[in-house]
Write a structure and sequence with these properties.
The complex is a heterodimer of chains A (337) and B (343). Chain A is α/β, with parallel strands linked by helices and 337 residues long. Chain A folds into two domains: 7-247, Rossmann fold; 267-335, Rossmann fold (3-Layer(aba) Sandwich). Chain A has eleven helices and 18 strands. Chain A has helices spanning 49-56, 79-85, 101-107, 121-133, 149-162, 179-195, 207-213, 231-236, 239-243, 274-286, 323-335; strands spanning 7-17, 22-29, 32-33, 38-42, 64-69, 72-73, 86-89, 167-171, 199-203, 216-220, 226-229, 249-252, 257-260, 267-271, 290-292, 300-305, 308-313, 316-320. In chain A, the strands form four sheets. In chain A, strands 7-8-9-4-10-11 form a six-stranded mixed sheet, sandwiched between helices. In chain A, strands 1, 2, 3, 5 and 6 form a five-stranded antiparallel sheet that branches. In chain A, strand 1 and strand 2 form a beta hairpin. In chain A, helix 3 packs parallel to helix 5, helix 4 (121-133) crosses helix 5 (149-162) and helix 10 (274-286) runs parallel beside helix 11. Chain A is elongated, with a radius of gyration of 25 Å. Chain B is mainly α and 343 residues long. Chain B has a single domain, classed as ABC transporter involved in vitamin B12 uptake, BtuC (Orthogonal Bundle). Chain B is built from 15 helices and no strands. In chain B, helix 4 runs parallel beside helix 7 (152-175) and helix 9 runs antiparallel to helix 12 (239-261). The chains are: A alpha/beta (337), B mainly alpha (343). Chains A and B meet through helix 2, strand 7 and helix 3 of A and helix 10 and helix 11 of B.
Chain lengths: 337, 343
């Protein structure tokens, strides 16, 4: 809606200032987020994702450089003005007893309501809208402390939406959630950016989910620079492999997911098609084989067919009906028994 | 609403009961005649004089003190997100004790009395002044140091440590003092609403009332703080300033009550828990008025019980508040199964 980007940083450096020294965590950040964009901030643990988000939210001061929210310098706006532009959701669990979920969302009207926090008719409409936007209307009357982790996080997001911000910052909001709730939450955040003039920046460890949902990925590299782009462009640049290298995992660009490196038993070929072939390949990978395309000279072959599998590994043959028996056979071959 | 009715009843009851009981009808007569013709020297029998000059100021003091401690306790508990916090969490009562101990126990008693007399102060006024001074000094120190601290729990621990240190000095004073002065010192430590006369109520009343009103105006901030300081800040609360002002306000209320009535324990912790348990909410829009009324009620009940109606004996107020209140709070917490802060 505004001609300004929702967020703009210029030569921003984030980190910590102690009495003696400054510890720069990330620097030379020139970030720009437009209204309607869904940004995922990714990177290994402890590399500074939270520091960056905290700085963008003015929860800690920038070392140098500027942050602009909707065109206004972060340093010059009042707490109330800041709260009207920026909503924040944190990983921390909120322990509030004996308060209905709707009251929590109403707290989001803080920067808009008067001294006593009385809800006007328009405040109520915004609260209704926020509750509806995160699909928790059926929970509004329930005690917040009795909701599940995923439901609570949705209520906290509704509360942030009730501030009517241009930008929503979420620091690992899925940290405590089970897998279905994570998927739902990321889907919800993406939908929110489609529905209104809102930009969302979310830090997460859920790489695969982020790559499927984000418009833009900010990937913090080991050297402290930020790799920015559409998820697929960042994958093409090989940045994920680099950012997470040196571990017992390998990023598979085609699958856009990580594979466990369990050992090196050589290459193997899977014949067959459909889900059975895919799953047979998964078993092989887990047991330490690199699955390759059809190859005449390969001495290791697994044939996945409708009734089970038939395998030939270095002159030993076997067959079976389920994947557990395939895994057992592969382990036998490996230990040489 | 029921609470307000209970408060009215208790108020009348507290005027009627005492070492000699006055019929309720007579109490109402006295009150209405005071209301209609404050200066008329009508038929003032003993009952009227007792009610007017002793019991009325005492009951008003109890209500004001109860309301003050209740709301200050609520503020501290929410601010520090700690169910054990009370108005004296920052070492206020220790500071006040030190002031009083210096005057009552210290070798400076004689000179202080002489000084006080020269300034036109009576002994009890001197005690009050000493308590206020001591509390203010400790509070000032704690606030100055805590303004450099980000973590609220650290601030709480800091207040506790200051309290311990100051209490230690008091203990030294107690150990070195003479028995007759110890008696006087112990008397102060019992707590009492009886020391506040009409004349002193003129100061105590406005101080506590304005403190309670100011505290009531922080409802919105307290609700935001329910989510923790990080979230409160993200919603536009200037957290540091709010914390400083809340600590200041609650502590001043605690200090004023302590100065006039002695260290009244327990009310500040218990009343917020009672209200949360009874109302089943942590919404301060309900809790703030509730703690004011509930605090007044509890203080009146304690006052009535401590006088052992119908007898000449008197129990220490502090013993009554704790003995009576502790089981009630335990019952409320158990009944609501999960305390307002559990989990």
């Amino acid at each position: 809606m505004t001609p300004h980007p929702a967020l703009q940083t210029r030569d921003l450096a984030v980190g910590y200032r102690t009495r003696r020294a400054r510890r720069v965590v990330l620097e030379r950040l020139n970030l720009s987020v437009r209204s309607g964009e869904f940004v995922c901030l990714l990177g290994p643990n402890g590399i500074g994702k939270s520091t960056l988000l905290r700085t963008l939210a003015r929860m800690q001061p920038a070392l140098w450089g500027t942050v602009e929210l909707g065109g206004a310098d972060l340093r010059s706006i009042t707490p109330t003005e800041l709260a009207r532009r920026l909503g924040v959701v944190l990983a921390e669990r909120v322990a509030v007893e004996a308060l209905p979920a709707r009251r929590i969302v109403e707290l989001g009207r803080y920067p808009h309501s008067g001294w006593f926090g009385r809800m006007s008719e328009s405040d109520r409409r915004v609260v209704d809208w926020a509750i509806d936007a995160v699909r928790v209307t059926h929970l509004a009357g329930r005690d917040f402390s009795l909701l599940s982790d995923g439901e609570r996080q949705r209520v906290m997001i509704a509360r942030a939406l009730a501030q009517e911000p241009v930008l929503l910052l979420l620091d690992e909001p899925t940290a405590f959630l089970d897998v279905p709730s994570r998927v739902e939450l990321m889907g919800l955040l993406r939908r929110l950016t489609r529905d209104g003039p809102l930009a969302v920046i979310v830090s997460t460890h859920d790489l695969e989910l982020a790559l499927r949902t984000a418009d833009v990925v900010w990937l913090v590299m080991p050297g402290g620079e930020l790799m920015i782009g559409a998820p697929e462009d960042v994958v093409m640049a090989g940045a994920f492999a680099e950012a997470f290298e040196g571990r017992q995992i390998r990023f598979d660009p085609g699958q856009r997911s990580f594979r466990l490196l369990t050992g090196d038993c050589g290459e193997a070929v899977v014949r067959g098609s459909g889900l059975r072939a895919t799953l047979a390949a998964a078993v092989l990978e887990r047991e330490g084989y690199a699955v390759v395309a059809e190859n005449e000279g390969c001495a290791r072959l697994v044939d996945a067919h409708d009734r089970g599998w038939r395998a030939s590994i270095d002159d030993a043959q076997s067959s079976g009906a389920d994947f557990a028996s395939l895994a057992a056979f592969l382990r036998e071959r490996r230990t040489g028994t | 609403m029921a609470l307000v009715v209970a408060l009215g009843g208790l108020f009348l009851l507290s005027l009627a009961l005492g070492s000699t009981s006055v019929p309720l009808r007579r109490v109402i007569d006295v009150l209405t005649s005071m209301w209609r013709a404050p200066d008329a020297a009508l038929d003032r029998d003993a009952a009227a004089i007792i009610v007017e000059t002793i019991r009325l100021p005492r009951s008003l003091t109890a209500m004001l003190a109860g309301a003050s401690l209740g709301i200050a306790g609520l503020q501290m508990q929410t601010l520090f997100r700690n169910p054990l916090a009370d108005p004296f969490a920052l070492g206020i009562s220790s500071g006040a004790s030190l002031g009083v101990a210096l005057v009552v126990l210290g070798s400076g008693y004689g000179p202080a009395i002489a000084f006080g007399t020269a300034m036109g102060m009576r002994g009890d006024v001197l005690t009050t002044a000493a308590a206020i001074t001591g509390a203010a000094l400790v509070l000032g120190l704690v606030l100055i140091v805590s303004s450099r601290i980000a973590n609220p729990t650290t601030v709480l621990i800091l207040g506790l440590m200051f309290g311990y240190a100051v209490s230690a000095i008091v203990t030294v004073l107690v150990g070195a003092s003479q028995p007759e002065r110890l008696q006087q010192w112990a008397q102060w430590g019992f707590g009492s609403f009886s020391g506040v006369t009409w004349q002193r109520l003129r100061l105590f009343g406005p101080l506590t009332l304005s403190g309670v009103l100011i505290a009531s105006a922080t409802t919105k901030q307290l609700n935001a703080l329910l989510l923790g300081e990080n979230y409160a800040r993200s919603m536009g609360l200037a957290v540091r300033r709010a914390r400083l002002l809340t600590m200041l306000g609650a502590s001043v209320l605690g200090a004023v009550v302590t100065a006039f009535c002695g260290p009244i324990s327990f009310l500040g912790i218990a009343v917020p828990h009672l209200c949360r348990g009874l109302l089943g909410t942590s919404d301060h829009r309900l809790l703030v008025p509730a703690v004011v009324v509930m605090g007044s009620c509890v203080a009146l009940v304690a006052q009535i019980v401590s006088l052992l109606p119908g007898s000449a004996g008197v129990l220490p107020l502090n013993a009554v508040t704790s003995l009576m209140g502790a089981p009630v709070v335990v019952a409320v917490l158990l009944r609501s199964r999960r305390g307002a802060f559990a989990g």
